[in-house]
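call fold(seq) -> tokens
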Amino acid sequence: MIKISNPIPFTKKAYDKLLSDRSRLRKVRVEVMKRLKVAREMGDLSENGAYTYAKFELGSIGRQLRRINQLLDDAFVVEERVHVIVEFGSSVTLAGPRGTKTYLMVSEHESDLQANKLAMTSPIGSAIMEKRVGDKVSVVTPRGEVKYKITAIS
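ret:
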């Protein structure tokens, strides 16, 4: 089976975090496998809570590692540069009805509004892509239309 995938852009910081997470999970997996072996040697597995939990934990770690490995397989790092339009990796300041806020434009895999990381494919992100300072955009949300003005790009 041929795997066809789309390249996924990442900031250097996010890419390094994926590598760090993968390394940490691999170390944790070794420890969990040791606990699983000890629990298995305790005898009856049907009522062995330590064994059951270690199996659950091992499955969870495996899923996380597969997800990270998939992302890393398709990842490429976008180098920082000077931005004159809104694009991946640019920092953009928006003035809207709730005040002014600055976001870092990232892929949907890095998106985290709590950390002010806005996905390029989100409704707001796609509306401001390739716009310049001073441009105004309207975004249709479930609560109605919201207008924003781009006040800075770096």
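Residues 91-153 form a domain with the Chitinase A; domain 3 fold (CATH 3.10.50.30).
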